[in-house]
Amino acid sequence: MVHENQSGTRQKIARFALLGAPNCGKTSLFNALTGGRAKVANYPGVTVEYRKGEFTLPNNQTVELLDLPGVYGDCGHSMDERVAIDAVRGNLEGERQPDGLLFLMDASHITTHLHNVLQAKNYGLPVVLVLNMMDMAARDGIEIDVAALESSLGIPVVSCVAVRASGRAHLLDFLNGWAGEILNDTATVPNAEGDSLKDLQAKARNISGVSVSRIEKAETFTQRIDKIVLHPVLGIAILAAILVFMFQAVYWWAGPFMDAIESGFGWLQGVSERLLPAGGWLTSLVSDGVIAGVGSVLIFLPQIIILFAFILLLEASGYMARAAFLVDTLMAKVGLNGRAFIPLLSSFACAIPGIMAARTIEQERDRLTTILIAPLMTCAARWPVYIMIIGAFIPNTKIGFLRLQGLVAFGLVVVGILFAMIMAFIFKRTLMKGAKSTLLIELPSYKMPVFKDYLLGLWDRAKIFINRAGRIILPASVIIWFLASYPTKANGIAGTFAGKIGGVIEPVLRPIGFNLEIAISLIPGMAAREVVVGALATIYSLDSEAVDGPIREVLQNSWSLPTALAFLAWFVFAPQCLSTLAIMKKETNGWKWPLFAFGYLFVLAYVAAGLTFHTATAFGL
Amino acid sequence: MTTRLTNLAKNETGVITGFDDADTDLCTRLREIGFAEGDNVTPLHFGLFGKNPMSVRLNGALIALRKAEAKAILVKAL
Ligand SMILES: Nc1nc2c(ncn2[C@@H]2O[C@H](COP(=O)(O)OP(=O)(O)OP(=O)(O)O)[C@@H](O)[C@H]2O)c(=O)[nH]1
Ligand SMILES: [Mg+2]
Question: Hey, are the CB atoms on A112 and B32 less than 8 Å from each other?
Answer without folding.
Answer: no
